């Protein structure tokens, strides 16, 4: 008996396809597939290439700049003139050499050290949350308070919050704050306590209990991590570690969990090693980028640091 292949004929419309069959959701185009594509602006890319090259070379003539960037001289001349007219590049009259202008310094004056560090940290926190599922924050000491600069609450399936960046945490009572302050040298900690005690900020009252802060810092150092429960919400706990660059304390990262799910000690047993690995990876990338930023260019000059003091 021969089995014939056949195609079903639909009397009320065309044969279902991946685009119009509601019964086949897995075959329907995804939002990514339907997303419009945009062409790269090649002139902008080339202009940025020129600026990056000048950042490495310093004062240089167009011939050398052309060789360094791989852009033909005719195109390079137009790009440089456009950048000069926009104020990003200056030309030296004596020999025609060009260099970046001071306009870039004015543009980056409001870019803080913590902004640059947070851009690096967030990738590591994302990988951490992908594994453990609990959310994680990175906080920095800024404007007299502890501010969250990066967070994975938005991607964590176990978080009840989303918009966390910019929120503050108690400097001397939260896990993030305890981790940060415990890593400060004694002189810096004492100066911080004294300064905040005389301010009208949210940490002023805590700062006046200097003895309790010193004891807390000692306990954190001895325990190897900071912990807190109910600092902001009664059902939320956290463990945290500081993030450093050399002798500088840049901030702290945490892992947040429901206190009904586990106690801080249990959280440390489960996740402290991963948190330490994340801190080590962050610090290694910061060190590598800072070393690269200090690399000597072909002109024997040094480029600006990636991480600078605010």
Model description:
The chain has helices at 31-34, 42-57, 62-69, 73-86, 103-108, 113-132, 175-183, 186-197, 204-207, 210-223, 264-293; strands at 89-91, 98-100, 137-142, 145-151, 168-169, 226-229, 236-245, 248-258. The chain folds into 2 domains: 1-109, Winged helix-like DNA-binding domain superfamily/Winged helix DNA-binding domain (Arc Repressor Mutant, subunit A, Orthogonal Bundle), CATH 1.10.10; 113-292, Beta-Lactamase (2-Layer Sandwich), CATH 3.30.450.40. The protein is α+β, with helices and mostly antiparallel strands and 310 residues long. Strand 7 (236-245) and strand 8 (248-258) form a beta hairpin. A 6-stranded antiparallel β-sheet has the order 5-4-3-8-7-6. Residues 1-33 and 296-310 have low confidence and may be disordered.
Describe the structure concisely for a colleague.
The protein is built from eleven helices and eight strands.
Please give a handful of descriptors for the protein shown.
single chain, 310 residues, alpha+beta, Arc Repressor Mutant, subunit A, Beta-Lactamase, 2 domains, two-stranded antiparallel sheet, 11 helices, 8 strands, 44% helix, elongated, disordered N terminus, disordered C terminus
